[in-house]
Amino acid sequence: MTDDERAAELQIDTAAMFAGQEPLNHPLTLHEALARALKYNLDARVKVMEEALASDDLDLSRYDLLPKAGYNGAYLTRNNVDGSSSRSVTTGVQTLEPSTSTDRDRLVADLTLSWNLLDFGVSYFNARQQANRILVVDEQRRRVTQNLFQDVRRAFWRAAGAQVLNARIKSAIHEAQGALTNSRQVEKEGLRPPVDALRYQKALLDLLRQLESVQQVLAISKTELASLINLPPGQNYSLAVPRSLAVQPLHVSMARMEETALMLNPDIREQSYLKRISVDEAHKAILKLLPSANLSWGPNYDSNSFLVNNTWTAGAVRIGGYLNSLILAPVTLRRTDNATLLVDTRREALSIATLAKLHIAYQQYLAASRDYSRSTELADVDQRLSQQITNRTASDVQGDLERISAEVSAVFSELRRYQAYAEAQAALGRIYATLGVDPVPSAAASYDVIELSREIRRGMLEWQRGQIAEPVADAGQGAAPSDVASTATANIATAKPETAKSETAKSETVKSEAAKTVSPSAVPSSVATATTAAPPAADQKIGVN
After folding, report:
1. Which of 124, 366, 373, 415 has the greatest number of beta carbons closer than 10 A?
2. For strand 292-302 and strand 105-116, is the pairing parallel, antiparallel, or unpaired?
3. Per-position DSSP letters for 401-468, written without gaps between them
4. Sheet containing 311-320: which strands, arranged edge to edge?
5. What is each CA distance from 123 to 238, 280, 319, 480, in whole angstroms?
6. Does the CA dihedral 436-438-442-446 come out positive or negative?
7. How far apart are CA 375 and CA 373, in angstroms?
8. Mean pLDDT of all residues in the chain?
9. DSSP code per residue over 207-252
10. Distances in Å between the alpha carbon of 366 and those of 119, 140, 207?
11. Looking at residue 304, what DSSP letter applies?
């Protein structure tokens, strides 16, 4: 690839990365940040397009179920007569004079419809496998979305802390630099002992180093959030930071959370679909051991003038197989059993890991909540202490150092408060990601940013009340689910507007065909509605903001 070709490709990519996005010309709320991440994040778009590709593969696999229709046509010619004679096998005497029954120039054509029963069976299981692969890709998309929400939560509150504290940090740096300049002048003029002046400067330089380090970290926070919601690098934007940060309890018992995680977690559900694929793979392996029957039928044409019938219809039934299938059968059956057992064991191991992740995330959330509570108290004390020191009238240099140190300590305490809140929100996000609860309904993915942010806000309020939405219903064994087809339709419309129309029509076809063969299954109501349970103990509460 030449530099010009790469430059042209880069220009196209740059325009496509941020095309079709609603402008951000107002303070960004957390719910809108989550909505923009869901609509515009490129990693999420990749999963949406992978889901559309898997749906296309399902459509292609269904055509393999149809009989094969083949046609041939040819013009045949030669430079001499296609003649022959006959000779007696007993006497060796020529019995007929040379003759011909074929024209030198002729046209031949045929149309053959063939159907191999073994290929049909294999194609049937291939279609079932591909339908389940759509479900696998959909679970992967759910996992990416849930992890994305978790990252946006943490990044938003880190960026909120950066925005709130940016002015105070700049002011503290300016005061520290001014005090450092004055101290150096005092040292130069010999107004204070050199040791005291150098100790004072060392303390100021240490404060400046800490402030500049924090300023650098905070400057990166908004860039990280911008990348998650796919804003152009360097775009200036502000956050709508609430005045009060609160962690409110959500009454869901640990037993109910464990049951929900085992039911809705996308990793576990993915393994369930992979087992279906493994079972169908076993069916295919067994089917290939059987003899194959091929049926063919079709019209033929030959322009040869010596033929009595220039057009005719021919048919055939052929049966064939391999004798070594009898030798391979025991090994094949054993391998299929082991493959199914492997998938079951992997799902069980993943279930144990999911429960461990849930308990770890829950403990991390409790620890982060306590840390936030202590950080809030400490920030309040440091702020009042800084105010008291600032109000004192101190004319000496040592008084400036105490005032600046108190201000820096107050800034750090406020920063730790926002960081503790961000960690609490991240831990809460890990709980929701482990539970596998979807942030918004499938149909909401086609909304604009404002509508989508409202849906996210509504979903968070339901989480706060302890209501856990039902999972996306699958389509049963080996069929494309109608709900997943609807999800793909909505997501495709979000990912690429220019391809939404064709992909939506395709997904609607998948949905209608799947509805004829299966009836979606849903999660039991005991898992779907967490509020019906009795309130848990005090140590079994989680919170949300």
Report:
1. 415
2. antiparallel
3. HHHHHHHHHHHHHHHHHHHHHHHHHHHHHHHHHHHT--SS-GGGGGS-HHHHHHHHHHHHHHHHTT--
4. 68-77, 105-116, 292-302, 311-320
5. 55, 11, 19, 15
6. negative
7. 5
8. 78
9. HHHHHHHHHHHHHHHHHHHHHHTTPPTT----B---S----EEE--
10. 57, 28, 32
11. -
10 Å CB burial of residue 305 (0-12, 13-18, 19+) is exposed
pLDDT for 348 equals 92
Provide the pLDDT confidence category of residue 522 given band limits of 50, 70 and 90.
very low
| Token representation of residue 246 | 């609160």
Q: What is the pLDDT of residue 510?
A: 42
Longest dimension (CA), the chain: 142
Name the CA dihedral angle for 213, 217, 219, 222, rounded to a multiple of 10 degrees.
-170
Tell me the two tokens of residue 72.
Answer: 């041939």
Q: What's the CA angle centered on 53, arms 49 and 54, to 5 degrees?
A: 115
Contact 491, 51 (CB under 8 A): yes
- Tokens coding 179: 């005090």
Would you call 43 helix, strand, or coil by DSSP?
A: helix
Q: Of how many residues is the chain composed?
A: 545
Task: Name residue 321's amino acid.
Answer: G
Angle in degrees, 0-180, between the axes of helices 194-228 and 117-189, rounded to the nearest 10: 160
Stretch 489-494: mean pLDDT, rounded? Answer: 42
Lowest average pLDDT, out of 1-5, 89-93, 342-346, goes to 1-5
Span 35-44, pLDDT tens digits: 888 888 877 7
pLDDT above 60 (res 505)? no
Amino acid (1-letter code) at residue 302? D
- Structure token pair of residue 2: 């030449």
Mean pLDDT of 225-252: 81
Q: Tell me the two tokens of residue 247.
A: 């962690």
pTM of structure:
0.70
Q: 121 to each of 62, 117, 284, how far by Cα in Å?
A: 12, 6, 8
> Are 355 and 262 spatial neighbours (Cβ–Cβ below 8 Å)?
yes
Q: Which residues have C-beta within 8 Å of that of residue 238, sequence separation ≥ 6?
A: 27, 28, 163
Q: Which amino acid is at 266?
A: P
Determine which of 312-316, 365-369, 430-434, 525-529 has the lowest per-residue pLDDT on average. 525-529
Q: How many CB atoms lie within 10 A of CB 56?
A: 15
CA distance 265 to 273: 13
Residue at 289: amino acid letter: L
Q: What share of the chain is helix, strand, coil (3-state, %, to 5)?
A: 65, 10, 25
The pairing of strands 83-84 and 292-302 is: unpaired
Pair 413, 378: CB distance under 8 Å = yes
CB 487 within 8 A of CB 468: no
- Note the pLDDT tens digit of each residue in 425-484: 888 888 888 888 877 766 666 778 888 888 888 877 777 666 665 544 444 444 433 344
Provide mean pLDDT across the span 194-199: 81
